[in-house]
Amino acid sequence: MEGNSVSSKAAVYFLISFRELCLVTLCLPLSSLLICFVTAYIFQQDEIHETHCRVYNVIPSISAITGVSPQRYLWRVCVAFHIGPRVVIASVYRTYYRMLLSQLPEAKNANTGRLLDVCYWLNMMEVGALCGVTYVSNRENYPFSWFSMCEYLIASANMAFHVTVMLDFPTEKMVVARGLPELLFNDYSLHWKKTD
């Protein structure tokens, strides 16, 4: 009888596969970057290839292709939608590793827990830096094409790293719910649960 009253009060407001969330999070900046690159390369070649110093860049920098209009607006919107899931993903990783750490002896757990916190806050700083680079205008133009190539390599490596999230959590779901049994979830909170 009591189980029926709990389930009648339960409500799931949002349920998404964590894998799907990660795919969307990855595809937003990747697709907008490709669109910005192609459209800027076709329609604004002079603006993206030449610096204020009149140095011609063979490969336009990410800053150049996302800094011209209208591409900057597409990039900013996509990054805005990208940031929220990145914070959730970082928090899930932290919780997941904290759960794994709880199975270690206490002597190893203390130092590893501090390292986990450092990694989490570095991840949050990366997300903050992405916001800063996206929304704070940069008037500096970096000469020579090596900077542009490095910028693309770093961005690609970062996106590739975040693909590993899908490999680490292939079957988990993200749930926003109220009134579910306390063994699985806390009221009004965001949690993940491994499904069979």
Task: Walk me through this protein's architecture.
The chain has one domain (16-169). It is mainly alpha-helical and 196 residues long. 16% of the residues are buried. The chain has a three-stranded antiparallel sheet. It contains seven helices and three strands. It has helices at 2-9, 18-43, 45-49, 62-65, 71-101, 106-135, 146-168; strands at 11-17, 172-178, 189-194. The chain crosses the membrane at residues 21-43.
Q: Spatial order of the strands in the main sheet? A: 1-2-3
Q: What profile does the largest beta sheet have?
A: 3 strands, antiparallel
Pattern of helices and strands: HEHHHHHHEE
> What is the chains' assembly state?
single chain
How many individual helices?
7
Please state the average pLDDT score.
75
Strand content: 5-15%
Number of domains: 1
Radius of gyration: 21 Å
Please identify the structural class as seen in this structure. Answer: mainly alpha
The portion of residues assigned to helices is 55-70%
What global shape is seen?
A: globular
Spans where pLDDT lies below 50 across 5 or more residues: 1-7, 138-143, 185-196
Distance between the termini: 27 Å
Number of strands: 3
List keywords for this structure.
globular, single chain, 65% helix, three-stranded antiparallel beta sheet, 3 strands, disordered N terminus, mainly alpha, 7 helices
Describe the SSE topology.
Layout: H1 2-9, E1 11-17, H2 18-43, H3 45-49, H4 62-65, H5 71-101, H6 106-135, H7 146-168, E2 172-178, E3 189-194
Antiparallel strand pairs: 1-2, 2-3
Helix pairs in contact: 2-5, 2-7, 5-6
